[in-house]
Write a structure and sequence with these properties.
The chain is of the alpha+beta class. The protein has one domain. It is built from 5 helices and 3 strands; from the N terminus they run αααββαβα. A 3-stranded antiparallel β-sheet has the order 1-2-3. Strand 1 and strand 2 form a beta hairpin. Helix 1 runs antiparallel to helix 2. It is rod-shaped, with a radius of gyration of 26 Å.
């Protein structure tokens, strides 16, 4: 016959393993969501800063849209710049608004850790639009395109 101490220690082990089975998925989902959202917030800040810097470069200096795109790509880095779309729209005259728009797929920013819960980043993008008043007039080549 088993002693009472042996039976209670066996039950305690079963209870602890049952607690682990119930709590572990919730804990992992919490950790994965913290990691994924922090990576997305960091990437979102980086995309916004790159768009703003590109827009500022375009408004202050006589740079071509291709040079602005290159600057934005260099600020994004190699991982975020993959498959990104950068739209540069310079204004024709000083005082008008020019803008740089950047679209980066979320898959470039972080792994899809929460897909199993239904919060997938597949097909979504981080978008940033940076309008800025042009402080210089566009070159003749840019004006002819309008």
């Amino acid at each position: 016959m088993k002693s009472i101490a042996t039976r209670t220690s066996g039950r305690r082990g079963a209870i602890l393993s049952m607690e682990l089975v119930l709590i572990l998925p919730i804990f992992l989902m919490l950790i994965f969501s913290i990691v994924e959202f922090s990576m997305l917030m960091s990437a979102s800040t980086r995309v916004a800063n790159a768009a703003h810097s590109g827009s500022r470069l375009m408004s202050l200096s006589d740079t071509s849209p291709d040079e602005v795109r290159e600057k934005v790509i260099s600020l994004l880095g190699s991982r975020l710049a993959q498959n990104c779309q950068i739209d540069v729209q310079p204004a024709a005259f000083a005082g008008h608004i020019g803008r740089v728009t950047v679209h980066v797929p979320m898959a470039n920013a972080c792994p899809d850790l929460l897909w199993i819960t239904g919060f997938s980043i597949k097909g979504r993008s981080i978008d940033s639009d940076a309008p800025m008043v042009m402080e210089r007039s566009a070159s003749r080549n840019e004006i002819q395109r309008f």
